[in-house]
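Dear colleague,

As promised, here are the two records you asked about, laid out in our usual form so they can be pasted straight into your sheet.

NAME FIELD: protein one
SEQUENCE, THEN STRUCTURE:
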Amino acid sequence: MKTPETLWTFGWLPRLAAAACLLALVAGCRTTGPAFDIRAGRPGSVKAGSTNLFSNAVTNVIKPEWLKPPTDPFRLGPGDRLDLEVLQIPGTRAAAFVGPDGKIYYDLLPGLDVWGLTLAETRNLLEQELGKYYVKPQVSVTLTGVQSKRVWVLGRLNRSGIYPLTGPMTVIEAVSRAGGLFTSRFGGTTEELADLNHSFIIRGGEMLPVNFQKLLRGGDTAQNIYLQPDDFIYLPSSLSSEVYVLGAVNGPRPIGYVDDMGLIAAIAKALGAQPQAQLSHVAIVRGSLSNPQIAVVDFKAILNGRVPDVHLEPRDIVYVPFSPYRTLDRYAKLITDIFVRTVAANEGGHAVDKSFGGVGVSNPISQ
């Protein structure tokens, strides 16, 4: 029988990876906004058609309800542990846990389904069922461990991991619970170790507009939202110098950056483009995830020698679409969504199983 952790964890990861694949399928149906010049600062370079890099019109809108502590009572789920006792009856105190089937087993009772019940509802159910064996039993129900509701706090932290969500918890509280940002033992600083511009939080498969730079460096409490079960926080290392190549390539993956890396080399390291790729609409996303910039490049013209190659920078995201974009205003949003879901699926998989092989983003119809 699988443990509750196995059921919970591996149910979440495949769904996240599948969602990323679905996003890749609809690449041509989303949209992006004003652009920056991918060839700026390189004398003598020639612009390809559609080569402007645009500042994406992403607004950092935090919903007011996210800043309010949740008022819903805790509800039990698989893996949660309880301490139970029928008061004034010796020998009835026992530990119990909610099994993968959502039931607890206690005293003379058969399995009772408590999945989704509050502690008060669980106590009432126990007293009702134990009333068949005892006279007006009064039952004590104490929550001693939580496994059904957890948050992921991973990356450049002193104690990154998966933490139980037993009550209201904000982003800052979660980061503190994970030991805070990893500190250099030599410099005594955290600036160079946590890349706050590329940090993110995912809820229900969507990246939330939390600006970690404003929150953790600027002290902007308007970014300090309350977490919900299954929220995924990731703070990557600023020492990383990878370029992500995603979409219609044969090996979507992070590529180690080398000096003067160009688009041709990056796509080649991702094992080349797939036959149905729209090479005239290759996108490069650059900058922070909360305010990304995007360039649309005619990669076919580069391959044919009509225009020079473009040079990439560390942490660029290269996206090769399966279909051409229609408008620009959401194209960067699509690509950053695919990026964070891919990173979350990989980092979450490694957090649970160190031998996890990782996932890429590709199109199922090409397989």
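NAME FIELD: protein two
SEQUENCE, THEN STRUCTURE:
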Amino acid sequence: MRIIIYGAGAVGSIIGGYLHHSKHEVVLVCSKEHADAIRTGGLRITGVQGNYEIRMSAVTGIEQVSFGSDDAVFLTMKTFDTEEALDRLARVAPKVPVVCFQNAVRNEEFAASRFARVYGGIVFFGAKYLEPGIVNHTSENSLGIGLYPRGLDSTVDALNDVLTRAGFSVTAYPNIMAVKWSKLFRNLNNALFAITGLSVLAGIKYEQSRFMMADTLEEALRVVKAEGIEIVPLAGHQPPEKMIESLRKPGERSFDVPDDEEAALRPSTWQDLYLKRGRTEVEYLNGEIVRLGRKHGIPTPLNSLMVNIVSKMARERLSPGAYTIRQLRDTLGEGEKG
């Protein structure tokens, strides 16, 4: 089974690079700058699993791939690019199995409207796009996969085997979307890290930011429960209620926050603002909570604030760190909490 990584940025390049390093056939479909750098000097991966220079195939459009009957496509682009990408893919490979290794909970729905065989994918590792041809693997190495909307099959088994041999810790989930909702909860505070400029570890270390993270998740949990959405925790991780409880424990955490930027955990929303891309996935993360809140008449002031501020920062090409926690609390009229 050849793997086509469609929309290969940081996450897709790391998945594809490790697959190729394990002697599996892979093609990256990525930006012209990234593809040119890979074709010229190879793909460089730095980080927690060592440094690699990998010579592999990279193209700039899905139309440049000659598809065979045993191919599978991993979608790794941002959600706002998914539908256009799927339309292009459907024109050249209408029967290919599609795996959505993406954040948010709408990509599988988009894919299922165009393809018969769709799979949900979970990415639980840190990655940064440093420059064309170079990506940084910052933490973890876990993936999840399951048939959409639910179930397992022989393709899940085959991909589990392929990805495990590439060095990933892979879990097969029979109810993949319930797990993707759990992952969405973990992504809701990406906006806070981007707005304040805090790394993930810095946000967790300090009580002020940690309490705001808890408030954001608690607000989300109310509307998700009202909708009746099932949530299944990622393997080895806490359900939302336990996450909130842990974040609310008072005091400063004892661990150190790395000074080295390469070692800092930076979520994708932070990277979108840092690279001044002009847009982020916040509408598909916190925006999902805001839409459910409107549907059920439940206020979502914190998630709404995250959507509005991140969207404004993206439009105006503002760098991460434009606001402090206190400024966010003051905007909500909660200065006494900050």
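A couple of things worth noting about protein two: The radius of gyration is 20 Å. Strands lie at 3-6, 26-29, 43-47, 52-54, 57-59, 72-75, 98-101, 118-131, 134-147, 169-172.

Best,
R.
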